[in-house]
Amino acid sequence: MAGITLTPAVVIWVILAIVTLGLALYRKLISAGEEDLIHLGPGEERRIPEQIALAGKLKAIDRWGKTLTVITVAIGLAMAGVYLYQAFLVHK
After folding, report:
1. Which residues contact 12 (CB under 8 A, 6 or more apart)?
2. Which residue in 34, 18, 33, 20 sits closest to 62, CA to CA?
3. Radius of gyration of the chain (CA)
4. How many CA within 13 A on the CB side of residue 25?
5. What's the rounded Cα separation, in Å, for the pair 15 and 50?
6. In the chain, what is the greatest distance between 2 CA atoms, to the nearest angstrom?
7. Residue 33 — φ and ψ, nearest 5°?
8. Residue 40: what are its φ and ψ, rounded to 5°?
9. Cα 16 from Cα 43, distance rounded (Å)
10. What is the DSSP code (8-state) at residue 37?
11. What pLDDT, in 10s, does the model give residues 57-77?
12. Which DSSP letter does residue 19 get?
């Protein structure tokens, strides 16, 4: 019985892992300019839209990051399962 070749799945998984890591790095770079203070004092009104925009951007990046992480882990686990199953069949 011929085994399933995992090469295409490994390539897709590596690309997903690189994109996921790149997105994490991008988030890190964007959030480096984030301030932990909410500007509510007099004269700080102009900063509020900037903070709202940054918070929205970080929220979108986080949503994509979580989704890509789950997909990457799921594909990795599936590949590991197929590999172990094939190894089991060979040594049976």
Report:
1. 75
2. 20
3. 21
4. 6
5. 33
6. 75
7. -90, 0
8. -125, -10
9. 44
10. S
11. 999 999 999 999 999 999 999
12. H
For residue 29, what are the CA distances in angstroms to 22, 25, 54, 59, 92? 11, 6, 12, 14, 50
Residues lower than pLDDT 50 in the chain: 1
Length reported for the chain: 92
Backbone angles phi, psi at 37, to 5 degrees: -95, 140
Decide: 11 and 76 in contact? Cβ < 8 Å: no
Q: What is the pTM for the complete model shown? A: 0.77
Instruction: Indicate the helix (H) or strand (E) that contains 64.
Output: helix 47-90
Q: How many Cβ atoms are within 10 Å of 13's Cβ, its own excluded?
A: 19
Amino acid at 13: W
